[in-house]
Amino acid sequence: MPGTVLLLAASPVGKGRLVDAASVLPVLAAVAPPVLSGTETANVVELADPLEPQAVLTRLRAAATAPGPLSVFITGQLQLDRRQHLPHLALARTTPATVRYTGFPWAWIREELRLRPPGTTTLLLDLHADAETWQWLRTHPLDSGRTHAVHGRIAPPPPRREVAAPTYMKAVATVLRSGHRPQAEQLHQLAVARLGADAYADVFLSTPTHTTGPTPTPTPTPTPTPDIDPHIAIASAVQAGRHSVADALAAEHEQAAVRVHGRGAEQALHWTEVRADLAMLAGDPVRSCRAWLAVAGARLAAGESVDTPAVEAAVDRAHHQWGQIHDPAPARELGLALAELRGRVPGRRAGALDHVRKQLLQLQP
Asked: Is there a shared CATH topology between the 3-207 domain and the 230-363 domain?
């Protein structure tokens, strides 16, 4: 039975673009359709920077109802609508004010794929999030459904005035251009291995298909005021360029959590992580790296194992931010601390400790 492949690359036109999503399509298009789908024959549907949500829905619905295996490759950026704070895939005409009407609701992806037979659908995602969505994702999973495999990455926003490249999806395409289609989880691991240190801040998704167990689903709710949810007030301050205000708000909640729960409690560490991300968004990699190192150290001191995802993520993000430091003095100081931590938490990508050691040698006065 032939397979179906949907290639969707979307990002806004103009200054709201975080990632050059469509640049991956020529690389994916160079892969033979049977390799893209993992079947003997396949039909490929390509959507490059679509304008209308309904056009995307029509193509997705047609792909979802096709018999046989379905592979969906999605590259783009996530944004929240201002009314319900639900994630959308930004399309060509999407702006922060029009997400609700011009973006493609992520929930539509889950709903259109919901009735497909378990084990017949694979999603490969390469997504960037704006500052508000990056904070929202801390407490809300990106629900893509329970009956199909999801692999990929979500990256934080790039530095201001920069447009990121879809490096994860390009790595996937490079692997597939060998002519061999490995299992989805192995394909994901091979792609991640190609990304190197630049991807240490990313969140990686690797969820094999499953048919039982609850998957939290974001539900429409009235927009809370900044006093019912502080993350919204913080994200608003970041979007307005008021980074010191955002950090001060997060610091207040961090201190309150420490007083009530203790320094190493999850409630306090959450706000330390928020401040680490805020420092990154403010272009202060020294402060961000230091905060992520503190989070990792606190989690280890609290008894979490070195392969706990939260510990690995903290060290990975510290590593990424360390790589953005240009001042040799703090780079040496934090690099020594990172090397010690990398000795205990090597992470899932080979060569991380060696990378730190080599960079430290270059930093010697």
From this structure: no
